[in-house]
Design goal:
Layout (H helix, E strand, L loop, with lengths): L4 E4 L3 E3 L8 E2 L3 E5 L2 E6 L9 E4 L3 E5 L1 E6 L17 H7 L1 H4 L5 H16 L3 E8 L10 H11 L3 E6 L21 H15 L8 E5 L4 H4 L2 H14 L3 E5 L3 H11 L3 H6 L8 E5 L5 H10 L2 E4 L1 H6 L7 H6 L4 E3 L12 H18 L18 H16 L15 E5 L14 H4 L5 E7 L2 E5 L8 H18 L1
Helix pairs in contact: 3-4, 3-16, 5-7, 13-14
The chain binds zinc ion.
């Protein structure tokens, strides 16, 4: 039996849509059969409905996180990587610790990451998991879907991996055995057959996602992998152009820039989205826009690793679908969606201002509208659902899935706001999650998650971190 709700008296409702439709006039939303069935003002409760009083609260669509590495939730703030750029950080943190992730440790890490996201109002998570080796003693895909389902969240497995050993991991200490191409393709096909859902209401999806496609596959396999994914109806995902090292490598080995390499190997298109895309030439930006290739924009991780700032607003103007990812918690020690959006709101303005020049040689003060709250909400909701392919999710409209967060701005951080609707993004912090609904069911209430013992999770995290430190 599904639940029926009437949310009433919301102070502000953001829809996830663009422009004049970004905010709804509605204060009330009726929910039944997992969907939003009515939006308006002064709606009356019907028999059998539970009324959720959202007075002084603001309502957003549930966030959609399009790039994560949940296993890294037990690798935050590792001293050996805290002041490192991407390549030495990869060696010092994820590569150094990944062989220690058995079933129990992966489960604890996934739970921490999912709970952290859920408590920031996130209802859909795409996890780029790349710890797949021949002969593993546990079923990581099943485990990750299981953990998300237990929390009532939608989940997409971005099935990572590699068929070659990259330079950075070519040592006894850091090596992870690659799969053969046949093993990788067979595993993705099996995973899709077990979990991948299509159409409105899907809760589980799968993508073909070699970890960093310019180094994870030899050149002759790129088209094979892309065609295999398309034959299965699966989208494609990978890390790309995160730091200048990507450009150096592609120039040296492939004789072109990274996005040109992808274009030459059938790895661009509306069924592809790429994490990071920080370092791009004007020509590469045009290739991305013309092909409709999307971005998982991960500004906090990019800042933390000194990668730079992805030109997300400019990419959007060129036709690139923009979404938001928190990336793994080993390179973003605040891997929740509110802090990611708060940072994004600030960093694009900082960048625009840093590039401004005084008149008459420049245009004077500029950049105050580099990104708007409405634009960010769109990226983090409808934009994310679009690139992941979850239909009927990501906007608050009649007929859409009832995935939504009701935030209560009852902390002094939010007192004094002239427009409380923008509070979670412009003030940041962690607003109290009054209710979080996914598919029309309550998955969090008053910051609590039914059935979850946070104290126990904290203790498990401590035990696992101590064990990792002893092994390291
Ligand atoms: Zn990543």
């Amino acid at each position: 039996m599904t639940s029926r709700f009437l949310i009433r008296h919301a102070h502000a409702v953001f829809t996830g849509l663009r422009g004049a439709q970004a905010r709804s006039d509605a204060t009330d939303l009726r929910i039944a059969e997992g969907l939003i069935t009515e939006m308006g003002r002064g709606l009356h409760a019907q028999e059998g409905e539970r009324v959720l009083d959202a007075s002084d609260c603001v309502v957003y669509p549930g966030w959609v996180n399009t790039h994560h590495h949940l296993f890294q939730s037990l690798l935050k703030g590792v001293p050996a990587g805290i002041d490192a750029t991407l390549s030495p950080w990869l060696q010092a943190v994820p590569f150094a610790f990944r062989r220690g992730f058995d079933e129990q440790r992966l489960r604890v890490a996934a739970r921490i990451g999912l709970v952290e996201l859920l408590r920031s109002g996130c209802t859909t998570v795409a996890d780029h998991h790349y710890l797949f080796q021949p002969g593993a003693d546990h079923d990581a895909a099943a485990l990750l879907f299981e953990e998300a389902e237990a929390l009532g969240m939608r989940f997409m497995l971005l099935r990572g991996g590699a068929t070659v050993t990259r330079r950075l991991e070519d040592s006894e200490r850091l090596h992870q055995a690659p799969e053969t191409l046949d093993q990788m393709l067979a595993a993705v096909e099996q995973t899709a057959a077990r979990f991948h859902q299509r159409g409105p209401g899907a809760r589980r999806r799968v993508a073909m996602a070699p970890t960093s496609v310019h180094v994870s596959l030899p050149r002759e396999q790129l088209k094979v992998v892309a065609r295999a994914a398309r034959a299965l109806g699966l989208p494609l995902h990978s890390h790309m152009s995160e730091s200048v090292a990507y450009i150096e490598y592609c120039r040296e080995v492939h004789g072109c820039r990274p996005i040109e390499y992808l274009a030459n190997n059938e790895w661009l298109g509306p069924d592809v989205w790429l994490a990071h895309l920080v370092h791009l030439s004007p020509g590469e930006m045009k290739l991305l826009g013309d092909s409709g290739t999307g971005i998982a924009h991960c500004p906090q991780s990019n800042a933390r690793l000194a990668d730079g700032i992805a030109p997300a607003p400019a990419l959007e103007r060129l036709g690139v679908p923009v979404s938001i990812g928190v990336d793994g918690a080993a390179s973003n020690e605040a891997a929740d969606m509110i802090s990611e959006l708060h940072f994004a709101w600030l960093v694009h303005r900082a960048q625009a201002g840093a590039l401004s020049r005084p008149r008459p040689e420049g245009e004077g003060e500029a950049g105050g509208d580099a990104v708007t709250v409405e634009q960010l909400v769109h990226w983090a909701t409808a934009g994310g659902a679009g690139v992941l392919g979850f239909e009927g999710v990501g906007t608050l409209q009649v007929g859409q899935a009832a995935d939504l967060a009701v935030f209560d701005l009852d902390d002094p951080r939010y007192f004094g706001l002239h427009d409380p609707g923008v509070g979670p993004i412009v003030s940041g912090g962690r607003p109290r999650l009054r209710w979080l609904l996914c598919g029309g069911e309550v998955v969090a209430e008053d910051d609590g998650i039914p059935g979850l013992d946070l104290g126990r999770l904290r203790a498990q995290a401590g035990e696992e971190v101590r064990a990792l430190m002893r092994a390291g």
